[in-house]
Amino acid sequence: MPPARFAPSITATTDKPTPVNLAQHSYFNLDGAGTIRDHILTIPAETYLPVDAGKIPTGEFRPVEGTPYDFRAGRRVGEGHDGVVDSYDHNFVVTREKTATPHTLARLASSKSGLALDVTSTEPGVQFYGGQMTKAKDPGLSGEIYSANSGLCLEAQLFPDAPNQKDFPDAILRPGETYRQETLFRFSRTG
Which residues pair with 62 in a beta bridge? Predict the structure, then answer.
């Protein structure tokens, strides 16, 4: 059976200069239910964007090495954290600019289900959100009520707050230009 794929293609045009930083916000749990804390996440980023108390990037490109944000070699999402994984809502810098062809942004895998998710995109960054604010009231497909860390998001995008950060790539779309984003979510078996 071939791998399952989800390939959103996003385009935008404008008649006036406007900030454009589009991302899709799907939640993933490769086990179908329960926590994502034991999922193995790999993000090939040397730096990430630290945020202030309002979750707005400070403008700094901070090295991931030696921090809880170092997913280069792949590790458990919950590794090094007690309780809820509440610190993940950051953009990881995989490249400094958009690319013409998709490149790897992230890989998520579960030894429990044997499933893996590979994310590739033309966007330079991936926003990793650990799902800490999830508070669903209605049951999901399995009948389970989803709570904090029941799913995570891997959002291909430009860098948040780019119009206000001089060292971030330009996120202003101008008349006559077309914004294009190609992202691929590829699901496969790990074993």
Answer: 48
